[in-house]
# Entry
Amino acid sequence: MFIEKFIEYFNENRNKRLFCFKTFFGETFAQQTPPSEKKILSLKNDFNQIVNQTKDAIIVNLYLNKTFPLTEQFRTSNVANIIYVFENENPTCSNYEAKLIFLLHLSKMKLSFEDFEIMFDKTGTIEIVKFESNDLIDLFSKIKSNPAILKALDCVVCDFIGKRVNEYDLDSISIEFFNSRIPGLNGFAGFKKVYVSSSRIEELKDEIEYREYPPDDGKVLLDLYFVQLILNEIIHVLIQIKKDNMNVSSHFKPDTNLEKYNVNENKSIQSNEIFCKSIIFNKKIDFHRTVDKKFGLNMIYLKEFYKDLIVNQLDVTFDIEASGVFVSKEPRCVMGVDIDQQSHVVFE
# Structure
């Protein structure tokens, strides 16, 4: 297995200050046919039954990731952090599952060398927590049972993979909260679940309190942040389930309406990119920066929109201009990861 060779190679070179993936791949694949396709990770079994396959898939993804900086010299200490996840974590622990799944997403990301260094360094800080927020747990249930949201999710998933979504698909998806020190990480798609960062929720709460928003206004902003995040990640979880593949990558169908997904048909589209725009939010909103625009926000509109969507369960489309929110430069939804970054970063 590739993961065993990777760990063995690293242990032989752990005393060196720098680590080069190109050297590892060159020596490993010199004696065999290198992989040409990503591994399929079926969701039919429990996650602990595909742990070793997931580790292998991470190494293969890095090799196949054309934008991964293979030739760069990574700090050995940072690479050691992911080795620790592979070797020493308890496979039955919820922390372990979350870290491994995040590494699976990370292995397909299109990041700078510096960003990969940060991610390798901080992945080990992911920790599942019991986040006391009955309001958000209740909102998660409302999102899953909302017919207008179901219609939007079904529309996106059907457009991209030709499969329909029903309420039973959403019933099978759960939520877990985590803390981490990964900058800007809001959440990511898991194994039939969504991971939500309690760290980022607390940051947003602190910003709302610092800006002295009235309680009702602050709650609407927090809830809208949560709704967008859940929609972003639940779309990817549904695609994983429908394709029975945790390591899924989606392609634009030739007949996909690109304008509907805010993609210019003249733009070069990576085969593994997906821009998931539902009929609800047209852009990716950075709510942490939005909160800073206190006097530029249309709170009347935001409250009405939230009420129409969540309470009245109406088919609504978010009006960016009317709302006054801060639109992120990152893609609307990335493959499995929701993250806010100041620099423009593209993900698979």
